[in-house]
Amino acid sequence: MRKIHQVSFSSLFQRITSTQGHLCLKAMAHSLSALYLAGLKLHQFVYKTGWLPQRQAPCKVISVGNLSVGGTGKTPFTIFLACLMQELGKKVVVVTRGYKSKSKETLISDGQRVFLSPLEAGDEGYLLAKNLPGIPVLKGKNRHQVINFAWKHFRPDIAILDDAFQHYALKRDLDIVLLDTESPFGNGYLLPRGTLREPISALNRAQAVVLTKIKDESRAGELKQYLTHHFPHLKIFTTLRTIETFFFLSSSPINHHSFPIARYRYLAFCGLAQPQDFYQTCHNLGVHIVHFLPFPDHYCYKQKDIEMLIEKAKEKKADALITTEKDAVKLIPFTQLFCQMGFEVFYPQIKISVHEKGAFSTWIKDQLGF
């Protein structure tokens, strides 16, 4: 029953934010957006005037954020950025807010060992820890408190904050904002009429914009022109998205280029804000999808969901299942169940890097005074 309600809310939000939809709902959402903006401005005002203090961290702080709800690639970009800082010889920690985490523990990983499960850490926190050997990963809503904990135990040069552009309570040395090139500002409206967390003018607080999910170079060029005209202070970078490896949920990784992925029929599923992105990724990889099942974003899978997926795979005569790495970490407890029912689960590992990596590294070092 819970899943039905979540999917219904997702469907309702889709109707409100789409071009076509119920005019009455849109009018109500527009009024709520005005209230949201008033609350946002009040929140900003209390920090700008000093009624609430902005805390200073004991190390350099880089925020990776976005303007809109939904996936812009923050987690894979944070992984790329943390590894880059490590390559530059800097001691790095990564701090995430721990969205939907079930544990109050701060330390997810000390860089050597992952201490929390996906449910305890939150899917994004666990994914960061899993992909960042040698780099501690921590979580908590109070980022200043978490960074002080990290300073006490790890003495980092840099703390990278995942999803913190709207976190006014902590001073940052750099704000990097990611924009989905295909839909950088959604429909142009604030929540809940649209998908924007803040007005586009909030980019005035950032030092750099990174364009992700580039499918059309001409569209990326138009967005660059718009940003250069309206925000001339911004440094603009573009990203390259690659898939080098496929993983089995139950065993070792396999090289993407040597795996005959097109030979099999798949049931695809995911719990993302923009499930169509994963569907398109599968299509681009040549995956033969016989059925696609989207779940709500950050969905916490239960045994009944796994049994439903397996039954649906049998019904559609699928050979295997395919999902995202973010979803796969939450399926680990059900590995044995999939195996017992004769189904393997695959997931591609998506990596993001910045074009002109050398120029990006130089810019970061100049900005931070390294």
Unreliable runs = 1-9
Note the run of SSEs as H and E. Answer: HHEHEEHHEHEEEHEEEHEHEHHEH
Share of β-strand residues: 15-25%
Rg, alpha carbons: 21 Å
Q: Which geometry do the CA atoms define?
A: globular
What does the average pLDDT come to?
Answer: 91
The count of DSSP E runs of length 2 or more, i.e. the number of strands, is: 13
Instruction: Determine the N-to-C terminus distance.
Output: 54 Å
Which percent range fits the helix content?
25-40%
Key attributes of the depicted protein:
single chain, 370 residues, alpha/beta, Rossmann fold, 3 domains, 13-stranded mixed β-sheet, 21% strand, globular, disordered N terminus
Give a written overview of the molecule.
The chain has 370 residues and is α/β, with parallel strands linked by helices. The chain folds into 3 domains: 2-48, no CATH class; 60-241 and 353-368, P-loop containing nucleotide triphosphate hydrolases (Rossmann fold, 3-Layer(aba) Sandwich); 243-350, 3-Layer(aba) Sandwich (Rossmann fold), CATH 3.40.50. The protein has helices at residues 2-17, 23-48, 74-87, 118-121, 123-131, 143-154, 217-230, 275-284, 303-315, 325-328, 335-340, 357-368, and strands spanning 60-66, 92-96, 107-109, 137-139, 158-162, 174-180, 208-212, 235-248, 253-255, 265-270, 288-294, 320-322, 345-354. Strands 1, 2, 3, 4, 5, 6, 7, 8, 9, 10, 11, 12 and 13 form a 13-stranded mixed β-sheet that branches. Strand 10, helix 8 and strand 11 form a beta-alpha-beta unit. It is globular. The protein starts with a helix and ends with a helix.
